[in-house]
Design a protein that fits this description.
The protein is an alpha+beta fold. The protein contains 15 helices and 16 strands. This is Nitroreductase domain-containing protein.
Length: 499
Amino acid sequence: MALDRLGFEGMTGKLRPSPLTSENLSRFFFESLALSGRKAVAGAEWTLRVNPSSGNLHPTECYLLAGGGEELDLSPGVYHYQPKDHSLELLAGIREESWQSLHLPPGTILLILTTIYWRESWKYGARAFRYCMLDLGHALAAAGEAACCLGWTLSLQEELGTDDLARILWNEPDKMTDGPTGKERPDVMLALFSDGRVHRIDKCLISGIETEPLSLRPNILSPSIVPWQEIDMASEAAKKPQISDAYSRSAARAEEVLRIELKGKSASIKEAATDVSGDISREYCHILRRRRSAQAMDGRATMPLDSFHAILKATMPERAKPGLPWRPQVNPVLFVHRVEEMDRGLYILLRDERAKEDLRGAMDPDFFWERPSRTPPGLELYQLAQGDARLAAKESSCRQDIASDGCFAVAMISRFEDPIEEYGPWFYSRLYWECGMIGQALYLSSEATGYRGCGIGCFFDGMVHRMLGLFDLGYQDLYHFTVGRALTDPRLIDLPAYG
């Protein structure tokens, strides 16, 4: 099916919003944070999820605040989404009058995403903090795409602070559990509007919601937990205060949500396929669940130019779901290896065209800054240097072949010192969220074109900075990625996620 029919290219028609029912809520989680499959080899078996995660370790948890109703078969309360058996676990009740006092639009539910650092720090140590924040961005984008399939809108509620979210979840400000789960930190609240619009919510009413937690014990992750002081320090610095109009000073674009047309109502969710009307929406949702991370690239495949452009368009901020309320901070540098009608070399994609002059002044003065002749409108793509960039991509990505064997690789270069100084240290984690969302866009759009992507968390940022001529903290390399034709391991057996 052509890429331009899958929501990644030119899809401007508005989706007919689906009602907020238990069935549709189940579908939302099924296409965002659920298990997507299982793999087996030589007696070993492991699960995969719709949302990507470093090392398949998944530190991100999702909590749901819902008020119930006739079509939503839930009593008012705080629920935890459990991917293992695709279920909601009631953790705390909410009095009906307390929920009604929020004055939320009909068909609105609230989500809170949290991070359990120990899920990744046992393997990655101090760098687990940034991996966790990238995974938070992956989860944000996965949830946004799943909401889009239902005609729903997902919106960040950034006026609330970390303590507000902890109080809502646990009735305690800044609760950091040191028990069997390790430290869990709330990251962000999202409002899910089933009417497809974006509404403003009173932060004072939300932060004052009263819950009645049940006496429950969390699962034990491991017999003991090794503390990482660096993660504790970064997490403490990343605590967000309650701020009204946090991004009012930025020149952020209004949130835009692209939607595909979907008609009719979905039937019960089954592993084989999501039963929705229309080939377009069925295929689109299928892509969400079939996304996989490449383990190796073939080193030979060449990508058509139109596919390359479509993949890049999917990363643009106006296509982000959910839309981010701050000015785009991340501008990817591309190592182009094998793309039809493109010279090999180094390129940059400006997701914020206002950054061009500043980047040009900060980078190597010998860079070309030439726009390739067939670049379509809406893509600010520039060639910086010509030549074989495979060794540079490989060496800068911890000498991993996957960075040089794909059709192209990416180094996500973010504005760094200025936004952190403008907003505060809590904005540091948001830079990684933005990178993670770009990564998920690359995953899905490459999947739609018949290619495959893979995030690369291990890289030498200093090497990339020297390569680009960046010598201060104005810009920072935060995430690498590669896209190409994936090699598959014939020993692996694919199994259904559930059943």
